[in-house]
Amino acid sequence: MHILITGHRGYIGSALVERLRKNNSIVGYDLVDGHDINTIPLKEKFNLIIHLAGMSGVRESIKDPQKYWINNVEATKRLFSVHGPDTRILYASSSSAAEPDLNPYAASKFCMEMTGGRYRSTLGMRFHTVYSDTPRKDMFLDKLLNNKLEYVTNHSRDFIHMEDLLDAIELLMKSQYGGTIDVGTGVSVPVSTLAPVDTPIKLDAANERMQTCANIKKLEQLGFKPKYDIVKFLDKKK
Questions:
Q1: In sequence order, what are the beta bridge partners of 93?
Q2: pLDDT tens digit string along 84-125?
Q3: Burial 8-24 (b: 16+ CB within 10 A, else e)
Q4: Rounded Cα gap, residues 184 and 52, in angstroms
Q5: How far apart are alpha carbons 200 and 210 in whole angstroms?
């Protein structure tokens, strides 16, 4: 297939390119290369688009909500308006979209889903908390593995390993699902249980969801079964 992957140099995008490029023709758009979805010509035709580009992170969105609106909502609206009528598009949403009132990041993902709802060809993938052997810099797992964790929150999260996430995306590429779909493991783990027992717990995190847990029934119907468990993963790291 001839596939466009936006955000192909990002954490998930770079791993997805590595997975798919053996059997597909891949074109990548990424802001670091000067490819702004809001302005770049969108003339090339594709068999499939996987839209991963955009801003992530709750705290940063509170500091600069306009940036999240422009890069998440407006860019997605433009991509969908050009390609949505006749091209299958899988796009990165977030488990945060389930409670869009909590922060600008969640609101932007929810608005992306509302835009996607206008096009039968789109599927919003509600990614849960993604981790790997090389976690996102300065995020929870990176700090935990490098002994830089100053505190934990009292949240519970559905952690999905990158390899499981990529498996799910490949299954969804072959599916006809529309609307939105959860991409996680179906298991929610208290964040505090993953950290050393003496790690302080910070309770003031009103802008984030208390618990996330993916409903993976639809993914299971496609044959999805997570291979990784966050607790076992961290035990092997000790």
A1: 126
A2: 999 999 999 999 999 999 999 999 999 999 999 999 999 999
A3: bbbbbbbbbbebbeeee
A4: 16
A5: 17
- Concatenated DSSP letters of 110-132: HHHHHHHTT-TTEEEEEE-EEE-
- The CATH number assigned to the domain holding 146 equals 3.40.50.720
The pairing of strands 159-161 and 129-131 is: parallel
Domain range holding 215? 2-237
Q: At what angle do helices 11-20 and 162-173 cross, to 10 degrees?
A: 60
pTM reported for the whole predicted model = 0.95
Asked whether the beta carbons of 103 and 208 are under 8 A apart, the reply is: yes
Minimal CA–CA distance to 228: which of 144, 142, 161, 135?
161
Count of domains observed in the chain: 1
**CA–CA gap between residue 144 and residue 138 (Å, rounded):** 9
**Tokens read off for 119:** 């096009």
Q: Is there a contact between 167 and 224 (Cβ–Cβ < 8 Å)?
A: yes
The band of 132, judged by pLDDT with boundaries at 50, 70 and 90, is very high
Give the tokens for residue 236: 């092997």
CB-hemisphere CA count at 13 Å for 194?
A: 29
The CB-side HSE value for 186 (13 A sphere, CA atoms) comes to 12
